[in-house]
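Look over what follows to help learners.
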Amino acid sequence: MSKNYRILDLLRRNRSPLENHLIDGLVDGRVSRRDFVRHGSLLGLSLPLLGGIGMAAGVGGMPSLARAQGASGATIRVTCQVPTAAIDPLTVADAGGTLMLQQVGEFLCIGGPDLALRPVLAESWKPNDKGTVWTFTLRKGVKFHSGGEMKADDVVASFDRLADPAGSSNALSVFKGILQKGATKKVDDYTVEFHLDAPNGNFPYMVSSDNYNAIILPASYKGDYEQSFDGTGPFKLEKYTPKVGASFVRNEDYWGQKALPERTEFTFFDDLQPQILALQGGQVDIINQITALAGIGLLNDPNFNIISVNSSLHRQVHMRCDSDPFKDPRVRRAIALTLDRDKLVAGLMKGRALPGNDSPFAPVYPSTDTSVPQRKQDFAQAKQLMEAAGAGKGFKVTLTTQRYNEIPAYAQLIQNWVKEIGIELDLNFMDQGAYYGDAVFGKSNWLDSVMGITDYGHRGVPNVLLAAPLKSNGTWNSAHFKNKDYDTLVDSYVAAVDLEAQKATAGKIQKLLLEETPIIFGYFYDYLTATAKGVAGVQPSPAGHLFLDKASKA
């Protein structure tokens, strides 16, 4: 017996059958090292343990996550989108608001750039064998800024608020059908159980930074968050001025390593261009997020660094399956076949993206079945499909969308491509408020338009993206797609706790969506953060967070 085998055997002991099955997959070569780390962290295996198993299995350990070695005491200056509403952990939904919330608040766990979950306020977690109950062990000695130790009562109260159907929680879109009010149970002061409505193999992501409303608040919280900005994080509020900016100072009583910066300052802007000018002029050190098209001047400028993180960020091109001219799936497939996805990646997104294959399964997801062939541009096949559907002479239709980032340019590219198969596409551009409307059927250009393009944020797992825009009862089903086989497959995927079972079901979903094509997923783009030279230790998240506790300036 080799030394590595003996070590691996020791590490296997006291592991659950589910955990050992994942280890078997790594050893047998059925699961890649990257996917092993991501899914292992989801099951609650610690990153050091995952690294040890990887070393013993001969595939390498975890990459170093060494603390930035810059000088402490700096003031880090950031520019970002202005928050569009009051900063409230229950209702916040915009990029600027979630960024403010995350500066002081913390989650049970966070998703890293590699999509591996890392413990924060929870030290560990694990599912039962069915994935219906997840048990989280909380970190001891964590204090709120307002005083008092964070314990199980605070965690229970936080998730009961978010899951309360009588409330206005933005997280209800995540917890509907998954976690009810009263289903988060205190076992003891440092142990909490989540009793789910149904099996859910990806549940830890629902209580992580992926769910930006899920910061832990004191059980005594009564509202009016802007008066306190209470949390457990490495920074505390110094000043917040709505529509203008905010500043934070280092929390000297933080439970973990103290933050390197003494202060952080945030300046709000409505548009990206003034943010770029502020960075170029030296007024700020960081732009929280830039886009490849609008920020092209920074991408190759040696005076700035671009932090690029692969993500599931994307634009959805929906076609209403219950309305002409898109009732026939052959017409929808034909349109999808006109897109030059390589040109979208290289030209529109300046190489900062990966091609989409007309399903929510982005390349970053461990459960994506990469054996499903990538759809390519094919005008000849598209014309054949149009003829077979009785639409060989083409038709005229309106695409309704928003003036936002590269979306207008994307719409114009589609307009030019579909001309090749006889489709005349009129473009109707709106501001974001008019496009989304009340975001309910019958009162939204987004949900009611025959064809449209919608921006979608990053998710660490595809659950929400599989359900809300595509299930028959989905709250964001702008394609009005209703397919019982699809609904059943998604339920099976969500229930699967094992990675290989998830991937097998994912492949079936991907193939079904290629056949039906209610939505075109043309590309998944990288999350980009720009910093000035000499700024180090900045850790952006594709979910829109910006971790500055390790940031420094030369």
